[in-house]
Amino acid sequence: HKQKVSRVFQSGVGMGLPSRLVRPVVGLQLSIRSIAHQEGLPKMPVPPLRQTCERYLAMLEPLVSEEELEHTRALVDEFLRSGGVGERLQRGLERRARKTENWLSEWWMQSAYLDSRMPVAVYTSPGVVLPPMHFQDRQGQMRQRGIEERRMEVIRQRGIEERRMEEIGQRNGGEENGGD
User: Fold this and answer.
1) 3-state SS record for 106-126
2) Structure pTM?
């Protein structure tokens, strides 16, 4: 198994990576300890279609106007219609999940790391490492962590807002800059 994993990572085979973006890495060896139980792990489940659509709408709610949200809800209802596009796509996704080890990993690699020109650490890394601190009590620790998490959220929101402004500017042909 270790050799198979090593060959896959060396060649990029099975990862959907364009060969022009991936150079063979000679001697790359994953620690057997880090993948020892990989085959025993359950496959990543495909979330139910309705749950996915509900989460999509919940994510949009703070970002769009009420009018845009209502329009999107109507589109989602059409997408969820029995025998509609959503059902067909869901079946295809479930088929892909049965045939692959992880139905999402190839798409995630492409979308998050290879197609995006945004800074990887800010836009695709889900974790945040905070500096070690020493506290007198649990309340102090929780208070400081809350401050740090809020600070990271503000930074993330600024990035989202900057992207939205860039997109608006591109759609408007740069009108916010005097049309230059």
Assistant:
1) HHHHHHHHHHCCCCHHHHCCC
2) 0.48
